[in-house]
Amino acid sequence: MYPIERVEALNAEVTRMTVRAPEIARKIRPGQFVMLRIDERGERIPLTMNDCDPEAGTVTIVFQAVGATTMRLARMRAGDALLDFAGPLGNPTELAGARRACVIGGGLGTAIAYPQAKWLHEHGCEVDVITGFRTKDLIILEDEINACSARQVIMTDDGSNGNKGVVTAPLQQRIDEGADYDLVLAVGPVIMMKFVAATTKPFGIKTLVSMNPLMIDGTGMCGGCRVKVGDEYLHACVDGPDFDGHLVDFDDAMRRGVMYRSFEGAAREAAAGRVASEGRDCGGSAAAGAVGAGADERKGA
């Protein structure tokens, strides 16, 4: 069993959880993920590492309560324990050697972008971080990112924080100003990563994107996490999750990403019904986990 040491709500939709897993904490690197299972009847879900403390033996994950399992996970508290917490899985992000980098996070992808920016900063790289959210109330990790970046730009869809627009606008502006990036990293919705890659391609800037397709076992056996990269299909779990953004077929990834949406919706509704029933039984509220629009229950979600 893997004890939960700390649980914190980052906003109305997102939870940060610290789990005691000493062996994983000593080995995991930015970009890698774990497969967890709450109990013997639970499903396996992949969540990317947000932070780790090798000395304390802990790994931190950040997730949004949008599916059956993450809704259950959001209701757990310090002192509870997870049955399975396997990792590290996937390949670490290739960060060594970067001098000037721009790390871009969209929504919950910011939680995955943070450890990458932190590692780059600690290894002498000048880091700009651009993040995007639907509204200012959903902004996460602003202070943590400030501590490991030379510049931070936060965009919102509705402009509620004073910066309305998409993440590619400040990226293009920095490139035009002569930022001279040798690495751009993008983590977030597939459509966002597609346009980040399109922005950097004319300038030949190395661009890595973190792909989050449906994943079942996390070890390359099921084939569910295939991503078309150039002329071949690769597995996000063992070949990725990071790939060359200029080679990824994002349209194919988006088509594959909605294949099981009806099943995911049914599972979410069933889980919400169980939460409501338990709330009534306890004489309390059913508001145990918010459901975010357009999100999914995969890495970082």
Helices and strands, with pairings:
Elements: E1 2-9, E2 14-20, H1 22-27, E3 33-37, E4 45-53, E5 58-64, H2 68-73, E6 81-82, E7 84-89, E8 100-106, H3 110-122, E9 126-133, H4 142-146, E10 151-156, H5 168-176, E11 183-187, H6 190-200, E12 207-210, E13 226-229, E14 232-235, E15 242-244, H7 250-257, H8 261-281
Parallel strand pairs: 8-9, 8-11, 9-10, 11-12
Antiparallel strand pairs: 1-2, 1-6, 2-5, 3-4, 3-7, 4-5, 12-15, 13-14
Structure, described:
The chain is an alpha/beta fold and 301 residues long. It is 26% helix and 28% strand. The chain contains 8 helices and 15 strands. A hairpin with a 7-residue loop joins β3 (33-37) and β4. The longest helix has 21 residues, at 261-281. The two termini are 22 Å apart.
**What percentage of the residues does DSSP assign to strands (E)?**
25-35%
Mean pLDDT: 89
Radius of gyration: 19 Å
Structural class: alpha/beta
Sheet with most strands: 7 strands, antiparallel
Strand order of the largest sheet: 6-1-2-5-4-3-7
- How many helices? The count is 8
The coarse overall form would be globular
Could you write a compact summary of the structure shown?
By secondary structure, this protein is of the alpha/beta class. Helix content is 26%, strand content 28%.
